[in-house]
Amino acid sequence: MVQQKRKRRNMRSAKRAALRRKRKRQVLFGLILVCILFVWGISYFLLYRSVSKYPKDKICDNIYIGSVNVSGMTKEKAVKELEKHLQEDGEIKATLKVQKKSVEVSLADLGLNYGDVEKVAQKAVDYGKKGRVAGRYFKLRKLKKEKVVFDKSIVLKDKTAKSVVKEKAVPLASHAVDASITIEESGPVITEAKEGKTVDIPKSIDALEQYLNTEWKHKDFSIKMVMKKEQPKVKEKDLQSITDELGSFSTDAGGGERWKNLKTGAEMLNGTVLMPGEEASVHDLTAPYDEEHGYVPAGSYENGQVVDSYGGGICQVSTTLYNALLYSEVEITKRYPHSMLINYVEPSRDAAIAGDTKDLKFKNNYDTPIYIHGGIDDNNQLTFAIYGKETRPENRKIKLVSETTKTEEYSVTYKTNSEAAIGSMEYTGSPHIGKTARLWKVIYEDGEEVGKEQINDSYYKKSDQIIEVGIKSDNPEASALVKNAVATQDKDKINAAIAQASAI
């Protein structure tokens, strides 16, 4: 019994001792936890204070976007700095190598541009400013040892780069040569085609962008254009069907400086081959109209007047060709009349050329190629003939008929000239009557008319005769007399005033 009591006391004592030890451990753990939290709190506070001292709207030190140091800049300033740097980079020259030839262009010409500078500038601003404090701290510490570089992607404006490469680099290639044909007395003579090479524009631009983004040191550089094989569009077999004259037309070539332009324009068009469905522009085939390309100043229409301009007379070339095409029944897709009447063809049978506003375009509507033969012959006739494969019936003929539907006579306009002697008359301007005309294609079979088709309607404005009447005199009364008479636009009154003024 006594032994049992002693045993219970010992058990209670053991439990109390264990409880005391547990409480001690809890207190110790609590103290350790408090210390840890305290240290963590102090550390976090110090880290937060360290990373928070950097302005949120400015880029930290030692940060670059590409090669541009943007340290301490706002996003807006960084973007402006990049734009400034872009202008500087745009002046750098790139030498485009095409086989053994080359051409130099500026990067600005190629459409140099940076990628999304707004986005990359914002990334630079955000560096070390977002995320967990510890992560931000280590990022900012890294800046003290080494610079951080954000890549700016370099791109070339697609349309600009393609246009420059096409204009500058492509012509340097050893292009394919189409088969050609000439008409000799013995008949057609065909020259064989040759395979060539040309610039692969998309792949060349890709190569340029890759170089700019990987190897470029912001200095002048050279780069090879990517080449590809080029097959001739016209081969010998394509021209073997050109055996017949489909139609021709001639106008008198005249003389003087204008004759030179007719010869040059005809030579530009001579030898042109159009495949089935292919369209051609007389302006594109004969321009530019300058001294370098064989043209000289000669008379042409401008604002209702005849003035000298380079290529004056090219409209006679297009007009002569227009009629040859009509007789050949080649499809005309664009044609414009002159502003005023011309004297080398009937109204509505002309075709004007004027810069980018007026042109003669035509399309090969035959199933076989057609060939244009043109020049000035020994009889001084400007002649164009269209050759191809005749498919029209032998008994079918056409006639072009010009119909005038309205005529407007030109007027005489009197103007005063204060610098010319009183009573003098100087005739200026280029007087032309005005007309509205229509062109018909009349179709005959076995000599009988079987059809009639309207080809065009044409309007030619009139141009008045200008007579400048001199009113310069020491006598103000005499000058006023003639001036008032001119205002009436009455010929008889003007002549009477001049006679009266001479008697004062």
How would you characterize this protein structure?
By secondary structure, the chain is of the alpha+beta class. Among the domains are: 63-209, no CATH class; 242-392, no CATH class. The protein is 36% helix and 31% strand. The chain has helices at 2-52, 75-90, 117-126, 133-145, 158-169, 201-214, 236-239, 256-269, 282-286, 314-328, 476-488, 491-503, and strands spanning 63-65, 68-69, 93-98, 101-106, 112-114, 148-150, 154-156, 180-184, 187-191, 196-199, 221-224, 227-230, 244-252, 273-274, 279-281, 297-302, 305-310, 331-334, 361-363, 370-376, 381-388, 396-408, 412-421, 425-428, 434-445, 448-460, 465-472. It has a 4-stranded antiparallel beta sheet. Strands 2-1-6 form a 3-stranded mixed beta sheet, with helices on one face. It has a 3-stranded mixed beta sheet with strand order 4-3-11, with helices on one face. The longest helix is centred in the N-terminal third of the chain and has 51 residues, at 2-52. It is elongated and about 165 Å long. The N and C termini lie far apart (173 Å). The relative contact order is 0.08. The mean pLDDT is 87.
